[in-house]
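Supplementary Note 3. Input sequence used for the single-chain structure prediction.
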Amino acid sequence: MADETTGSLGRGLDVLLAMAGGAGPAPGSVIAERLGRHRIQVVRTLQSLVAAGVVTRDPVGLTYDLDWRLHSQAVRVVRARLMTEGPQVLREASEATGAATFLAEVRGDGSVAFAEHVPTGLSWAGRSYPLYCDDAGQALLWDCGRDELDIVFANTEFIAYGPNSPVDVGQFAERLAAARERGYSVADEESEPAVFAVAAPVRDFTGEVICALHTEGPSRELAPLAEEHGRLIAELAGRLSALLGHGATRT
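The predicted structure, written as discrete structure tokens, is reproduced below.
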């Protein structure tokens, strides 16, 4: 009986993880395909999860989705894990680069740092900066296509906060495309004069970008080390993402 219960629990967790990693509601056949399992077996598990109240079923579209309560609990767990693991990643990044390091997220139409490791002791947490020129802006909008960027910046006035601030959404999109190719973004005098930064996106178990890890410091010191620091920040962002469940698989 214990083995049967453990097996059922494992199958249920596999299905929940497959649903969490998908893009919204899906039929049982699609979820089964993600798992590489027979549809009938997966549908039976889904029916049990519906009865348990952790999965909902749309009787019209015949699709399944995670119950909103499970979504909200997962978000809280991810946030708690982020605030627990994030400071260590920030310290490691700062010690390796000698720069101030931050975790930033989108709030409204700006980027706001919510965690930091600043050697000088001067805090920047809680201050909002425009996404188009912020040190973390490109990383936060990493997955956005041009149509989405047009919507994000529809009412944005591209003010030159630094000598290299993007002049329009087209230039931002070009820089974002280049950032994706190299695996990290570079902001050289975009947010303000003589300030340099590299950044990389951090994802959670759903695959969504939830924040960005970035450095900040004097251009004259950090610009020559852009590639070295960029690769490091991308690696650390990937490690933090893994701690938040991104790319997790069950064996």
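The beta strands are 55-58, 63-66, 100-107, 110-117, 128-130, 185-188, 195-203, 209-218. DSSP finds nine helices and eight strands in the chain.
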